[in-house]
Each structure stands twice: as C-alpha cells, then as structure tokens.
Amino acid sequence: MNGYERPNDRWICGHAAEGRPCRIGPSRWGRCRATFECDPVKKGDRWQCTRPKHAGGPCAEGPRPDGTCAHPIERCVPQRSLRAKRGLVTWATVALTLGVVLVLLDSRWREWWLNPGPVSLAHRSEAFVQQAAAAGLPGQCAGCHSAAAQSLAAWPGAAVRAEPGLWDFAALLHPPSATPVAMDQSCQRCHTGFDFHAERMTEDVSCTECHREHAGSDALRAPSVAHCVSCHGDRERMPSDTSIAKAFGVAHPEFRPVRERWRDANTLKFNHARHFAADIPPVNGAALTCASCHELDDSGLRHKPISFEQHCRACHTLQFDVRNPDLELPHGSVASVRAFLNSLPVQYADLARRRGLITTEAVETFVMDQLRALYEERRELERDVLFTSDWEAPAGVAGVTDAPRARYPGCAKCHEVREGESPVVMPVVQTSRWFRDSLFSHTTHRDISCAECHAATTSRDTADVLVPSQASCVRCHGPQNTALNQCTVCHVFHREAMR
Amino acid sequence: MMSYLTGWVLLAVMLVLTLFNARKKLPFLPMLSARVWLVSHIALGFFSAAIFVWHAGWPHGWFNWLLTAVYAAVMISGVVGWIWSRTIPRQLTALGEEVIWETIPARRAQLRAQAEAMAITSPVVGRFYLENLSGSWTDAERNLRVLRDTLGETERALADRLAAILREDALLATHYRLQGRLKGWLFVHIPLTYALLVLTAAHVIVVYAFSRGAP
C-alpha cells in the first residue's frame, strides 16, 4: 500500500493508476508537487539523505555534492478524484441549466417557452395584440400579463409584489378571494367595468375566478360545476330569495315556469291537441306536425313567431259567404274588416266582373242578389263576423281548393273581441322565450321528438305553458348520463349574453 | 391556492432531499444517523413523486415539460441507485474480498507488473504474455489453461502463479465494474438534482410574476 490514499481529495497523483503514486500528492489546485525523494540535510560538512523509512529509508547513493537529492521524482499530470469529477459535472450542469433558463427567458422565444397552453381564439387574435400594444404592452402575453412586457430582471420584483406575493405564505392557508385582482385591469381594457355581471351580483367577481385561459380550446373553457356551486350552492353567499343549486337533476330547483305553474297570458284561443287529431287533413300534401307551424329562426336556437298568413291561412280561410268562396275577409285589423264589410257592394261588383259579367245591369243584379241573400242570413253582419265563434262557412269548396278546409267560425273563435264604441280584437302576444336566463338550442336537439319535451298533444288551453320540466332534461343531462351537465350548458353569467 | 400550497410543499421536500447530500459531506455533525437520513431520503423521494403529480398533473408548455423531465430523471436515477445499493453490495460480498474502488487501478497495475516480471523468466510464458496479455486480459486465463498442459513442471508452476494473478485481476475488474455502478448513478442523480432546483426557482418566480395578482 502506498502512502497516498486520499480519495476524498480533489486531486490524486497521476501515477496512482499505475500503482506508484508519489507520497506527496498534488496541491489542492491540482499541481504536481513532486521534486525529489528527500530533502537532504547538512550535518557538518556532509549532506545526509532524509528519505523516510516507509519510502525505503536513506538511499545508498546519498545526496549529491551540491546538496540535492540523487533521486528526482518523475513529475505527473494530477487527475481529478471521482468526487471532484462529480462536483465538476454538477457545476457544469447547473451552469448549463442556468444559462439555458436565462437565455430562453430573456429572448424573443420566451412566450413560446413559458406558455403553458394555447389561449382562446379571441385572446390570440390580431385585434387583441393590437389592443394590448395600444396600451403599451407589446406582445400577445402582455395583453393579460404585464410581466411579459418587462425584462427578466423585473420578474423577481413582480413576483414579490404580486398578491399573494412570493413570501406571503399566510395566504396559502386561506381560500382565495373572488374579488377583482390585478389582472382584471388587463381584461377591462376591452371588457370595460364589471357591468356585464348579472344584475343580482352582490359584489364584483374577478374575471379570472371563472375564466381559465391556456386551456387549449377555441373558446374559454367553461367553469366546472364545482366552481359555480361554490357560490350557488352556498346559502350564505347567495341572496336570500335565490334558489340553491348543487348539481343538475340532483340538487337543482325545478324550472321556474313549471315550479310556479306559469300560465300563458296570450289572448289567442289555441288548442294544440285539436291540431293533432286524426281528422286533421294533410297540409300541402303532408300531415300536420309541430314543424308545420314552428320554424327555427336564423340562430337555430328558437322558433320564429307564428304567422296567420304563413301558418294558419292554408286551413283557416276567411271565406264568410258560402255562395261566394272567392271572397275572403282581410286579417290583421278590425278597421280593415269593417272597411271590407262596408265596401261589400264594390267587392261583389268586382267579383261579378271577374266572373265575366260585363253589362252594368248584370253586375248590379248580381250585387243586389248576393247582398240580399247575405243580409237575410246575417242581419247584423258586422257583429256576427266579429263576435261569432260558430259561423257556418264553406269547407272544401270546389274551385278554391281541393283540400277540406276548416270552416270560418267568426273572429271570436280564435280572438278575444271586446265590445266598445268600436270593437277591439285583443292583440296576440306570443312568448318566444320562457327560460329567459338560460341557453337552449333546438338545433342541437333536432334528433329528439318535440313530444318528448313538450306536452303539446294533450294541451287544450292556450294558457298551458308547454315548457319541459327538469325531469325531462335530466333524462339526458343528469349526473349519470353522458350528455353535458355543466351549469354553463344552460346558464350564462354575463348580463349581455343573457339578452 | 391549492396548487401554490402543494408547490411550496414540494419545494420544501426537495430541499430536504437535497440536504441529504450536504449531510454526507458533514459526517461529524450530530444530525441523526446516516441510516435515518437514508431511509428518510428514500421515503421523502417517493412522497415527492406523489406531491409532484398532485401539483403538476399533466404538464403543459415547454418549460413545464423540461421541469417534469428533469424531475423524472432525478426520480428514476434515484430509484435505480436505490435498487443498486440494495443488490450490488450482496454481489460484492459474494466475491469474497473487500476492495476500495479507488485502489483498484493501482492494484491491477501492480498485478500487471508482477505478470511482466514473471514473463521474462520463461521464454514460453513470455511468449504467451506477449500474445495474450500485452493488451486486454480478457479470456487470457482460458488460453493459459490450454497452454499449461503442454508445459514442463517448472514452467507449469510459473503458469499457475500467472493464472492466480489473472484470477485476482478478474476479481478486481468485477469489483471495479460493480462499485463503479454504485458511484456512477450519482453522476446523474446529483447534478440533475441541482439543475432541478435551478429550474424550480425559475418556475416559482415565473408563476408569481405571471399570476393573476401580479402588478
């Protein structure tokens, strides 16, 4: 065993691997310290060898006359110890890592490098970037993160000044507040104020409370059910008259129109069930269905208002004179009806000419005959037209249409007509949207039969509000079903979006 | 706030894990036994993996991917080192001799010198040395057994001594390889640990500077 076994030193003798390390070893800086095997001492006038016993003891030759040792040690190139090599690799790795981090975070690639996921379509648009640049925050990230517009050196300071800050450990133990945060200032450059919140909000809520960016979708990812329930499932946080909801179909209030048994105040007298009866003839060659009258609007969400001309007249003609089905009452205003009735001589004369009567005498005779016949049946013609609901009128009159028609029953059959100085037909008010604060797309649900949600086939009263109950939706949107059941599927939070 | 909390807990665990290396450099300090530190290091290492998954989930973004990759490398190298530290010592014990890894090159150099000294005393053994041992000694003992049967009594004794040297060298080579593994995995584990701390520090600053509460 040699005299130099110090593996924990940073450097080892270059001859160690050959099995003959020197007994001095390298300096701590890795320099070879080999000189001679001993340092002769002079005793009297003679130099004496001082080589220690473990190194072989005094040599036979002894020192040279000038006092130098006769056995110079071969110099070596010291080698790093294993521990030193590991330390070197460690420092090199740390330096490389630090270099890569600093270079990338201070370069023009840093947005690409740090971005934890693609942002929503709106927040990666050119308009958004321009808006941020106009506010002095160049770059896409700076549109929301002001740090992105700062140099790398400013980030530690920003981290400390953030709320909660870098050293604010106490905040870690408290639930985060939903109130506005610093980033909302960025949001409000485009989404001004907090006036887009729902009317009944008791306090402003930070945009970031619900909206999570970098979620990789085209639209901002909808908040989770748990997120909404954190407020809407908490009686303490909600206004006292607000229903508490925790999960659709499980702990969710019944829809308000159903729960409160709303009634439709429309004055039109309409019987849905009658229109599904077996004796209803085909319309334009097809059986009468919901879609015959209820057409989707351009948005595909809801339906267009029902129009008499488009949806009713095909069956409900206004042929008031059984002998002259060519004549029809006008629809839309009492004044028009009264004007028409007052001008019946002219109407009949015009009809006579259309039928080929040319001479004045023939036309006058035709007019007088028709008026006499009509007034013999209806002495109070105008009143009967407006207030009667069981007028007998042609059905399936040849020459007008081959299809059987509903007989003209009088205005009061469908309308509420009020007497007065001048008769008034109460206006028809169609409610196009019963769930005012929710979203629903009929297009999305086009594969489902209308009757699965709307009890139209049994409804005989206009006042019936034919909206589905929660149970109807839960069949697909309940917690056990595959269809979406997040709150945001039906509900919107922002005031503007509700309209 | 939960991700912030788990992040700080994870960083604290990582710092404690890193202290294990510092503890090894300061063996004179009365800070629990080395065994307690080792068991704690292993247990905390696995605990950190659970917190990491809880904290980070599936990583998003290149920086987070780098952070995750380095963490995974540290974790995997640690597990490999742990397995080696439990299996290799038994193999070394089975070899029957305790050898300090750092002395092995010197001892093998000495054996080579002995073999060379022996080789020059016999023309036959010397020729064998030149043909089989001047380079690598792999498979040399098998060739020597073949040669031994053709030798006279004196040279056979010489060949037996040379075979003993070759066996000792093979033993040392095995020691060197196995102990090298025990030391080698630390060349991955320790440097990447410190690289992970650097990346984590950058991650913490970035997270706070880009947080929703940042000015």
Provide the gyration radius of chain A in Å: 48 Å
How many structural units, i.e. domains of chain B? 2
Question: What is the averaged pLDDT score of chain B?
Answer: 88
The helix fraction of chain B, in percent, is over 70%
Shape, per Cα inertia axes of chain B? elongated
Structure classification of chain A: mainly alpha
What's the SSE pattern of chain B?
HHHHHHHH
Terminal residue distance of chain B: 18 Å
> Which blocks of ≥5 consecutive residues of chain A have pLDDT under 50?
394-401
Mean pLDDT of chain A: 85
Shape of chain A: rod-shaped
Quickly count the helices of chain A. 16
Summing up helix and strand content along with how strands pair, one would put the structural category of chain B as mainly alpha
Task: Please state roughly what percent of the residues of chain A sit in beta strands, choosing from under 5%, 5-15%, 15-25%, 25-35%, 35-45% or over 45%.
Answer: under 5%
Largest interface, C-beta within 8 A: A-B, 62 and 43 residues
DSSP strand count of chain A: 6
